[in-house]
Amino acid sequence: MCSQQYHENQPLEFYCEECEVPICHKCSVVRHNRHFLIDTQKAAQEQWMQMEDAMAKVKAQMVICENQIQKQVNLMDKNKNEVLFAENKVTELIRDLREHERTMKATLHEIYEAQQKHQATQLENFELVVTQMKSCAKRGEGVLERNISALQTNQAIIGRCEELLKERKPEICKPPQCALHGGK
Hints:
184 residues; rod-shaped; Double Stranded RNA Binding Domain; 70% helix; 2 domains; mainly alpha; 3 helices; single chain; 3-stranded antiparallel beta sheet
């Protein structure tokens, strides 16, 4: 029923397309004269079809959006899996590098120990030669200080000095160039 004053008992028979409202017969004459009017049943049917069409379009767009959501979720999952794979690969590489570090340090320590042993042997050889030379020199100085002219003793000391001078002297043991320092 119409809600306009003096039209309260009038049924809403028409629909004003310009104002987009249902109206009664009196409203059509008084307030909506010269407006395009249609029957309320026809207007309702047209709006029903428009609504169905709009809903179909919304539903179609909703399906598209849901597909986009699924694609986005799939991309996020793929991205997550790729990052996890990369993290695992980095962890594996670091573990391998640490193992290589331990192996290299152990090898370098073995090389160091062997060099130290060899150098200690060379040092002992130097010390033995020096001890022998000191002993010979001390004996010779003693003979010279006492002014002893015992030919046999003098000859033995001279022979020993010549022997010591002719002996192959130990050489300084230099460690090999380390490849890790580029030969420096």
